[in-house]
Write a structure and sequence with these properties.
Strand order of the largest sheet: 1-2-3-5-4
Protein name: Aminoglycoside phosphotransferase domain-containing protein
Number of domains: 2
Distance between the termini: 37 Å
Organism: Mycolicibacterium parafortuitum (Mycobacterium parafortuitum)
Number of helices: 10
Strand content: 5-15%
Pfam families: APH
Number of strands: 9
Shape: globular
Structural class: alpha+beta
CATH class of the largest domain: Alpha Beta
InterPro entries: Aminoglycoside_PTrfase, Kinase-like_dom_sf
Helix content: 40-55%
CATH topology of the largest domain: Aminoglycoside 3'-phosphotransferase, Chain: A, domain 2
CATH superfamily of the largest domain: Aminoglycoside phosphotransferase (APH), C-terminal lobe
Largest sheet: 5 strands, antiparallel
Length: 306
């Protein structure tokens, strides 16, 4: 997409959020875009309400599946908030459900009082992830198993074509490696056959230590759109040895299990394949090209799984 096309997509997403918000009874005078990468995030001023509108996604975007995914996110964030976990909660000013308007699916959230030192994706100590995982163990709703791997990625791997340094041999390796990983990650039963004794539980799904908002009152977890069932290692993949050591130390102090090296290796292999699959998203989000090229080099230098 050209810069003009990207700007037009942002404008249309913002207009859709404003129209949907007004239909829900919100008085909106000055919508302000706060963030615009995979999602357009819009403050519906003067309301303390933020709309998040996904415009690029690694997940399957069929309306029924996207609706279920967004509802899971709203539900788990509301549950965590009710149980005293510091999260950005869904807005209480509108019904807690996804809204579809003008081709865009969106959710509505409470406006966070962002601190001056907040930087998107800047991580926090891994003890925060331990806190979140401990709370999520009690989440009562059923969740799909490793949905970031099993939902959307199969289609992306199938759609890979040579481009921007991604070669035919890369694609052949990616598809073969995906099949080997799918054999052990497709569902709970397959996982437990491969990793006997390793428990699974609700996990945030996308590096919770880096999906936080620094507010004037402290750290808030955010972005639960990939909430899923899986081993805690999924949330720790690709963070590095120092982060794993910090997580294990904090987990041990709370009487929780340390990470399993073999499970972590499988999760990191799956995460690297996600990055390869994201080459299919470059036309929709051109800024991905440079970081994905680096991720491709890292994947090539890593032994194949299985």
């Amino acid at each position: 997409m050209t810069p003009e096309e990207l700007a037009e997509r942002t404008r249309r997403a913002t207009d859709a959020a404003v129209a949907a918000g007004r239909e829900l009874g919100l008085r909106i005078e000055q919508p302000t875009v706060l963030h615009d990468v995979f999602s357009v995030v819009v403050h519906l001023r003067p309301q303390p309400v933020v709309a998040r509108i996904p415009v690029v996604s690694t997940a399957n975007l069929q309306p029924d599946r996207q609706n279920a995914r967004q509802q899971r996110e709203l539900d788990v964030a509301a549950w965590l908030d009710a149980h005293g976990v510091p999260v950005v909660p869904p807005s209480a000013r509108v019904p807690r459900r996804p809204v579809r308007r003008d081709g865009f699916a969106m959710t509505f959230w409470e406006l966070a009082d962002v601190a001056e030192d907040h930087e998107p994706y800047r991580g926090v100590d891994l003890s925060y992830s331990v806190t979140l995982h401990e709370a999520l163990r009690d989440y009562p709703a059923e969740l799909p198993f490793l949905s970031p791997f099993n939902d959307g990625l199969p289609e992306m791997i199938a759609e890979l074509r040579p481009q921007r340094g991604l070669t035919t041999s890369d694609i052949e390796r990616a598809r073969a490696e995906f099949d080997r990983l799918r054999a052990v990650l497709a569902d709970r039963e397959s996982f437990h056959r491969a990793f006997a004794g390793v428990p699974v539980q609700p996990v945030q799904g996308d590096a919770p230590s880096h999906n936080v908002i620094r507010t004037r009152a402290g750290i808030l977890f955010s972005d639960f759109e990939d909430i899923t069932c899986g081993p805690v290692e999924w949330d720790l993949a690709m963070l590095g040895e120092e982060a794993i050591t910090a997580y294990d130390r904090a987990a041990h102090e709370r009487g929780l299990r340390r990470t399993d090296p073999e499970v972590l290796r499988a999760m990191e292999s799956a995460r690297r394949l996600q990055f390869v699959g994201c080459f299919t998203l470059i036309p929709q989000l051109p800024i991905l090209a440079a970081p994905l090229t680096e991720a491709l080099d890292d994947w090539r230098a890593t032994p194949e799984f299985g």
